[in-house]
């Protein structure tokens, strides 16, 4: 009689652990910006960019620099729009998009 109870307890415990880990996996975006760099970054210092998730409270662009840093900038800034256009035009055809 104890064996079926033990087996049932183990199954319930395993299901609880699986449910908990699955719930934690996709809880939110990986990177959001809360402070922004307002100084214009030279085109030669930026290698790529990524838009932050729509689930972030503030829309932002993450610039990846030659030095390996990431800078948060506002997508509405005119210099950021120009930089994105420049980087998109520079992209190699057939390469995956930065978006």
TrEMBL record:
One GO term in the molecular function aspect is: chemokine activity
> SUPFAM superfamilies attached here?
Interleukin 8-like chemokines
Chemokine interleukin-8-like domain residues are 29-87
Principal subcellular localisation of the protein: secreted
**Is NAD a UniProt keyword of this protein?**
no
Write down the Pfam families for this protein, in alphabetical order.
IL8
Q: Where is the signal peptide?
A: 1-23
Q: Which UniProt keywords apply?
A: Cytokine, Secreted, Signal
* Entry keyword RNA-binding: no
List cellular component terms (GO).
extracellular space
Which cellular compartments is it found in?
Answer: Secreted
One GO process term, biological-process aspect: immune response
Describe the family membership recorded for this protein in Swiss-Prot or TrEMBL. Belongs to the intercrine beta (chemokine CC) family.
Q: What is this protein called?
A: Chemokine interleukin-8-like domain-containing protein
> Per the UniProt entry, what species is this protein from, by scientific name?
Astatotilapia calliptera (Eastern happy)
């Amino acid at each position: 009689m104890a064996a079926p109870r033990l087996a049932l307890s183990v199954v319930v415990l395993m299901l609880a652990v699986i449910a908990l880990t699955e719930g934690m996996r996709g809880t939110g975006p990986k990177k959001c910006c809360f402070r922004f760099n307002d100084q214009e970054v030279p085109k030669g210092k930026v290698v790529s960019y990524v838009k932050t998730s729509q689930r972030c409270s503030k829309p932002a662009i993450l610039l990846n620099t030659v030095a390996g840093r990431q800078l948060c900038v506002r997508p509405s800034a005119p210099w950021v729009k120009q930089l994105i256009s420049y980087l998109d035009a520079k992209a190699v055809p057939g390469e995956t998009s930065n978006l």
